[in-house]
Specification:
It is a single chain. A hairpin with a 5-residue loop joins β9 and β10. By secondary structure, the chain is an alpha+beta fold. The chain contains 4 helices and 15 strands. A 6-stranded antiparallel sheet has the order 1-3-4-13-8-11. Strands 10-9-12 form a 3-stranded antiparallel sheet, with no helix packed on it. The longest helix has 33 residues. It folds into 2 domains: 50 residues; 141 residues, Jelly Rolls.
């Protein structure tokens, strides 16, 4: 049942991504044709197109799953301020939470260990962020993007420096699951993105 739900969520997210890409392409074509005529229009609507949100009040309006409480329990594993809004209860059997990052906030490199199954699923819900696996290029995150992180993959995720960012984090079921928090993402690594 849980796997079916996750597959349905992923399919809906992929359909949404394709719709957003088509809308953004049309929007960019319209802007391109009117750019010389109306630069004020472009400045006004550019933030919406790019999904970047610097203002906390605007972000809270768009963050449909809510900001939640300061993520004090895990603050030592984050550079910057993060917030956590649990969407399920511990007794529900599958943990889902909306995690919000202020601009520039990111978590440390970390690994979701499991002897079988496990890992994490991220469903991006608001703002813009980054996801990076060790040894690979960073991936830009926007609303509707789904990231599947297998167990044993060292990675980090967080907000872009100029946008608030939220994702739903799903702890995938597995055997002998645990999290290993590693070193912080250095300022040099982050600023190079």
């Amino acid at each position: 049942m849980r796997l079916r739900l996750l597959v349905e969520i992923r399919a809906a997210a992929l359909a949404d991504i394709h719709t957003r890409e088509r809308q953004e392409t049309r929007w960019r074509q319209n802007i391109h044709t009117g750019a010389a005529v109306c630069p004020a229009f472009i400045r006004k609507h550019w933030e919406v197109c790019c999904m970047k949100i610097m203002d906390k009040a605007t972000f809270e309006e768009q963050n449909v799953f809510g900001l939640g409480a300061p993520n004090d329990a895990f603050a030592r594993y984050f550079a910057g301020r993060s917030y956590l809004n649990p969407l399920t209860r511990p007794e529900d059997g599958l943990f889902l939470a909306n995690v919000t990052f202020e601009p520039g906030c990111r978590n440390n490199w970390h690994i979701h260990h499991a002897s079988e199954g496990g890992g994490q699923l991220l469903i991006c819900t608001a703002g813009e962020g980054w996801y990076q696996e060790e040894g690979k290029e960073a991936v830009s995150l926007e609303p509707g993007r789904v990231i599947v992180i297998p167990a044993e993959v060292k990675h980090w995720h967080g907000a872009k420096r100029d946008s608030w960012f939220s994702h739903i984090a799903v702890e995938m079921p597995g055997e002998a699951c645990s999290n290993e928090w590693c070193e912080p993402v250095s300022d040099a690594e982050y600023e190079a993105l």
